[in-house]
Design a protein that fits this description.
27% helix, alpha/beta, 3 strands, globular, single chain
């Protein structure tokens, strides 16, 4: 579904992954593993996976996804909503 600003939204993580070159994992740390297991079979070698989830190492993610292009980002300033 596309809104008036041209932003597409999806109800399924797998649909997002199929349509993306860059996949950002920005969920609570305990949710990372279920999300990765949900998308692991459709990620391609051309896609880059970036995560901001604390406490999840690249080797932990590779144990679920296999060898992929994975990058971890650390936010060093607090975010306020």
């Amino acid at each position: 579904m596309e809104d008036r600003f041209g932003i597409q939204t999806f109800k399924c993580n797998q649909e997002v992954v199929k349509r993306s070159d860059l996949i950002v994992i920005a969920v609570k740390p305990h949710i990372v593993e279920p999300v990765l297991k949900e998308i692991k079979d459709i990620i391609t070698d051309d896609q880059l996976i970036m995560t901001v989830a604390a406490g999840n190492t690249i080797s932990n993610m590779e144990s679920i996804l296999g060898k992929r292009r994975i990058s971890r980002l650390a936010v060093n300033t607090p975010a306020f909503v």
